[in-house]
Amino acid sequence: MAKIALLDKDPLARDKMRQSLRMEESYRIVAEGQDGRFVLPIMRAHNPDIYIMCSKMPNVNGVEAAKELIEEVSEAKIIMVFSNEQDIELTASLCAGVMGFVSIERIEDWLKEAVRNLLSNRIYMDPYISTEILKEYRKLSDRTKKHKFGRASIFTTREQVVLQSLVKGKSNFEIADELHISDKTVKNHISSILKKSDTECRTRAVVKAIKYGWVKF
């Protein structure tokens, strides 16, 4: 049975999360917290399989909590819940290591699917977020079709394959499995990609790769 932790300042929002998962007998909510300060104590006391947290919380917000958690548990699975006007948190959350994104407005429809995907080591973005990201990437691609930045040649063949997988939204686990390499080797390739692309996280590397035509999209 998968153990789930809920973090949100609003009790009604946490109740909405609980209601969204109520029919799933394979899930059990083991802990709740009002803000990001609770994430590490919850991790140490309950070791949840999934953390569902609001991006906007007092004291320690969702992005900061995700960073703290992943520093302690690198493979922690986090679903960030946000409202449409909070899109600015998306890139920061991805950089922090968050794997799941769900809009609060349709959480009843998408939260269970997000949990299932993360338990299978897959990244999940609900249709609203996926659409917004696709629109932005297409804008970037259209603006730069006539002026590609010729840096793709600096990547090794294996790094290009890993970068293409990142663009497709694949997790480290999926990349390692497909390429028959270790998770550590995947991380080493990604570190090299970040250094060569002059970016600080995989999300910005993906955006830059699409923008400058380093990979197919």
From TrEMBL:
Database matches in Pfam families: GerE, Response_reg
Q: Which residues form the HTH luxR-type domain?
A: 148-213
GO CC annotations on file: cytoplasm
What's an example of a GO molecular-function annotation for this chain? DNA binding
SMART domains linked? HTH_LUXR (SM00421), REC (SM00448)
Please report the name of this protein according to its UniProt entry: Response regulator transcription factor
Biological process, per Gene Ontology: phosphorelay signal transduction system; regulation of DNA-templated transcription
On whether Phosphoprotein is a keyword of this UniProt record, the answer is yes
Gene3D superfamilies, per the entry: 3.40.50.2300
Origin species, per record, is Niallia taxi
Keyword Nucleotide-binding listed? The answer is: no
Q: For this UniProt entry, what is the primary localization, expressed as one broad class? A: cytoplasm
